[in-house]
Design brief:
mainly beta, YmcC-like fold, Immunoglobulin-like, 7% helix, 51% strand
């Protein structure tokens, strides 16, 4: 029995201390809160180390479906923001990578030199009193190297009820041989022996910010933060109401507008793999329609995928999408967004091709579910949730007030008249009390004539050849309208 207990103790000790000051323990998802301009929660997950001979490369999310199996062919250039399969040197930073060599770790970041990507040397296994320098070239800073010093080791809480040995490492900026004040003053790197960084510095271009561990998940333990489940994003029930605002900037054929919708959930059904909503939609104009939505869990796997501190792009419907971190809302609610940059990934040969006028984004949160969409290709159209009633509690925009305001604005909408139309020789009269600018476009979208308007009745002489055109009028309140204009001879 004593031998069995001793064997179990040795086994448990090996499991507990196998990581031994590894900054990013394998098999662990680490959740960090990075304080920049907001309180964005990033999720860091190192799941694969590849042996490169004299060194190793650690990847985040390597085993996920990122890039649809084309991960090795995709590079990223942070300076242009473009993905590429080119072999140029400054494209050779793999997304989500850290180089490990012996006891050294090189964290890649964007440098001031557009031809190279610098790296930070970090010695995770350093002893108390050990110091080392690492050169650094951050944009707009007064230093060119950092000194790291291992100050102390002590025993304390990691997160939740987990306790471990902690190593404190201070950072001092230097301009050549001279210490200087910097953004790193009073910042400490805290490394746990078995659970990685408790506090670390995130090097990202012009900014270097602290990231603090708020939770982790391993095979044996889970503490602190965890991702919201699919059902937390899709939980509306009969009687709930969501109010939308839709803004359209206008294009060559359609004038700009703002519309409001009220979606009333008439019924809902939630299963393990999907959710179904039957919705009655009302517009401020008084018209109504019905909508049927079915959300499949498999189509929203990105909602609970880890997001790295560097990049996390995925092949989604053959397009490259950037999965954004989740953003804390009030009362433990969270929002997450996915955005396409208009790059088509051909998975047959793993080549990337830029698409034209294709940029869209979607946002979901645990308060109302689908809450934002944006399409800014040929035109710009956004839809945003501006109010809701959930479980009998109302917040945000009031539907009755919106209807009243829309009716009042409709009465005061600017009016415009163009005559004669068709117009001989491109000469006509524009009549409007509030017009301030006229722009005439050809059918291919090019501006061929423009004129400032400062009278209620203005004679317009364009001398344009015959054909079909579009007259875009901008009013004093910055609203716009577009009318067809035909020039006969």
């Amino acid at each position: 029995m004593k031998k069995l207990l001793l064997a179990l103790l040795l086994c448990s000790s090996f499991i507990s201390f196998a990581q031994d000051w590894n900054p990013f323990p394998l098999g662990q998802k680490s959740f960090y809160n990075v304080y920049k301009n907001d309180t964005t929660i990033h999720v860091l997950h190192a799941d694969t180390i590849l042996n490169r001979g004299s060194f190793q490369t650690m990847f985040f999310n390597y085993n996920d479906e990122n890039y649809a199996g084309c991960y090795e062919n995709v590079y990223f250039n942070p300076y242009s923001g473009l993905y590429s399969t080119t072999n140029q040197q400054f494209y050779r930073v793999k997304p989500d990578s850290i180089t490990l060599k012996n006891d050294s770790m090189l964290i890649y970041f964007t440098s001031a030199n557009p031809q190279y990507h610098d790296s930070i040397l970090f010695l995770a296994k350093s002893n108390i009193g050990t110091s080392w320098f690492s050169t650094i070239n951050l944009i707009g800073t007064n230093f060119n190297k950092l000194q790291f010093t291992c100050d102390s080791i002590y025993f304390d809480t990691i997160v939740g009820n987990t306790i471990d040995s902690l190593k404190i490492i201070s950072v001092q900026a230097f301009d050549n041989a001279n210490p200087v004040s910097s953004i790193f003053d009073n910042q400490k790197i805290i490394l746990s022996k078995n659970y990685g960084f408790k506090t670390m510095i995130v090097f990202s271009g012009e900014l270097s910010t602290p990231a603090r561990l708020i939770g982790f998940s391993t095979t044996f333990n889970q503490e602190g933060f965890n991702y919201p489940d699919f059902t937390e994003y899709f939980h509306l029930n009969a009687g709930d109401v969501v109010i939308w605002r839709e803004d359209f900037q206008g294009d060559i054929l359609n004038p700009s507008y703002t519309k409001y919708y009220k979606d009333s959930i008439m019924s809902s059904f939630l299963s393990n793999d999907s959710v179904y909503y039957y919705i009655e939609r009302e517009q401020t104009s008084g018209s109504t329609s019905t909508l049927n939505y079915k959300y499949l869990r498999e189509n929203f796997e990105w909602l609970d995928k880890p997001t790295s501190l560097f990049l996390n792009s995925i092949a989604y419907s053959n397009y490259l999408w950037e999965t954004y971190p989740i953003y804390p809302l009030t009362n433990n609610n969270f929002s997450r967004e996915v955005e396409s940059y208009g790059f088509n990934l051909d998975t047959t040969d793993c080549q990337i091709y830029q698409t034209t006028d294709f940029n869209i984004a979607q946002r979901y949160n645990t308060k109302v579910g689908f809450s934002h969409s944006r399409d800014w290709g040929w035109h710009m159209k956004t839809n945003d949730v501006i109010g809701w009633t959930i479980n009998g509690i109302s917040e945000g925009a009031n539907w009755k007030m919106l209807i009243t305001n829309v009716k009042e604005n409709t009465i005061n909408n600017p009016s415009v008249s163009i005559y004669p139309n068709p117009s001989p020789s491109g000469n006509f009269t524009l009549e409007s009390e509030q017009a301030k600018w006229l722009e005439i476009m050809s059918i291919d979208g090019k501006t061929v004539f423009s004129q400032h308007i400062n009278q209620s009745k203005t004679a317009i002489n364009t001398n344009l050849p015959q054909g079909l055109y579009f007259a875009k009028i901008t009013f004093e309140n910055n609203k716009q309208t577009i009318q067809k204009l035909v020039i006969t001879d």
